[in-house]
Amino acid sequence: MLVGHPEISSNVAEERQELQTLLQSETFKKAPNLVRFLEYVAEQHFSGNTDHIKEYNIAVEALHRPEQFDPQSDTIVRTTAHALRKKLDLYYATEGNDHQVQIQLPVGKYVLQFVRKHQEAAEDQEEVVLARPMADFPKHTPLPTANGRWSVLWIFGIACAVLVVAAAIYFTNRKPKVRMASVGIAAASLNGAHGQIMRIRFGKNDGPDPYLDAAGQPWITEKYCQGGTAFAHAGHEIQGTDDPAIFQQGREGKFQCKIPVPPGKYQILFLFADTAGDREAARQVDLTINTRRTDALDIVDEAGGDDVAIGKLYTGIVPMNDGTIHLDFTSDGSFVNAIEVTPTDAEGGQVQRMVAGPEVFRDNQGNTWLPERFFQGGRRTFHPDGLPKIPNSKLFEWERYGHFHYLIPAVAGKEYKIRLYFSEGWFGVGNGGPGGIGSRVFDVYCNGTTLLKDFDILSVERDGAAVTTFDHVKPTAHGMLDISFTPIKNYPLINAIEVEPEN
User: Fold this and answer.
1) Which of 321, 343, 365 finishes a domain?
2) How far is 238 from 246, CA to CA, in rounded Å?
3) Is 474 found in the same domain as 357?
4) What pLDDT score does 298 carry?
5) Among positive and negative, which fits the CA dihedral 88, 94, 98, 99?
6) Which of 66, 110, 337, 360 has its C-alpha lying 20 to 30 A from 222's C-alpha?
């Protein structure tokens, strides 16, 4: 891959054509911020003004931030650049796969590169041949010629395979050694869900099926229900999710579903957001799972308002004699937006892991951390640099900060272990920011019970991170873990959350 500031291409027309084709593609059609960013940096590239491409200029001139824009407190440019790199990767893996000219935005830079596929392939092949110095070859082995390169590549491939296997064995048997004197860092080594998760969206099928969410997970359109009415309330901004499309449609009224599943035990996570604008107690959801009647649900009351995503979790579900799970919505005000059906024997449900950002992370134990959901309040920021020097440091790339809380669904009557992951990415000399210990102090509560009091990340972190663990935490009678972050001095923050049932 090319590095550094690229020279202005001699074939500007070809590059401009690639830019226009990309901007008009399906991939970029619904990403206005990314389009504005890309158009701006591209025009600076074509005009030869790459020195003008600064974070401040992009924010003010392309993303319409005010002239008082402060890159230290507003990470819109870095976040948008990160999203643009991912979108470019997606585009050239799908729609633009066969394009000879491809656009790249190198990590840590805002200057575009227009790369030709044949040029990049030639450079990559040359790197394979020349990566090994002449002195490293045994005297009886001649340097590879054009006809002998495939042999070298074959040997190189075997060597890489051996290294991959060795690395897999090493990381499988390795346990992270992270310690902290006063808080106790412990990276959990827990198995992921066994079996396949079935994700179903209810309502009309107005888009592609399956729908891919922010984590890249497929959601199929309902096909096992009768009765009720499909609805769609497009345009609603839904709090607590990176996938509003999942909550902008659904099925309402009295209806029945029969979900075919293999034999075994399951949990079902029901997903709701009331987009009808009803008042509290005006839209009661009455639900029976097989022969088990659940408590009536008032979604607006439990979520704290309209257009807020919440979940309700039920476990210990087995299919009926016909090989299906029966769901009966029995009140006129019933509705549902989506469900996740997960195989599990755990009475408290599967472990829930999420990072405070829009991305998926897989740790060195093979666990998957999904994008956060069920959050209310606060803002996100992105810190890809200066990460903690511990295993799984990418858990700390994203943070939510401000005055915020999470409503995490759980099973009423069960107990849970909660782990909260923190890293100070702003205050302190090591971060290039002002202040030090005492600059950020906050409290953390769960269902009104104090988890952390006057908590200061800098005073307890080790190697740039702090992980706090709380045992025997009980959800509310309605099956919620309401984790609240309250400021004492400056804003609280969180990087990742892990909720493990104590069965």
Assistant:
1) 343
2) 10
3) yes
4) 92
5) negative
6) 360
Taking 3-state DSSP, the helix, strand and coil percentages for the chain, each rounded to the nearest 5, stand at: 25, 30, 45
- Domain for residue 134, yes or no? no
Distance CA 83, CA 435 (A): 31
- Phi, psi for 357 (deg, rounded to 5): -155, -175
Judge whether 280 lies within some domain: yes
Cα–Cα distance list, 379 to 73, 357, 359, 400 (Å): 11, 10, 15, 5
User: What's the pLDDT at 68?
Assistant: 80
Residue 15 has pLDDT above 60, yes or no: yes
Based on the fold, state whether residues 329 and 370 are members of the same structural domain.
no
Contacts of 408 (CB under 8 A, 6+ apart): 311, 352, 374, 480, 481, 482, 483, 497, 499
Q: Is 282 in the same domain as 387?
A: no
Distance (Å) of CA 225 to CA 71, 109, 153, 258, 345: 50, 50, 54, 7, 26
Please work out, in degrees rounded to the nearest 5, the angle formed at the alpha carbon of residue 89 by the alpha carbons of 85 and 94: 150
Choose one of 288, 318, 343: the last residue of a domain.
Answer: 343
Q: In 3D, which of 283, 147, 9 has the Cα closest to residue 19? A: 9
Whether 364 and 464 share a structural domain: yes
Tell me how long the chain is.
503
**Cβ(179)–Cβ(151) under 8 Å?**
no
Neighbours of 451 (CB within 10 A): 18
Tokens encoding 366: 């093979």
User: Token digits for 78?
Assistant: 């870095």
Domain-located, residue 69: yes
Tell whether 491 is covered by a domain: yes
DSSP label of 160: H
Which amino acid makes up residue 65? R
Provide the residue range defining the domain that includes 453: 352-501
What is the structure's pLDDT at 31? Answer: 80
Task: Choose among 192, 212, 231, 449: nearest CA to 333.
Answer: 231
pLDDT band at 320 (very low <50, low <70, confident <90, very high): very high
Judgement on whether residues 356 and 497 belong to the same structural domain of the protein? yes
pTM score, whole prediction: 0.65
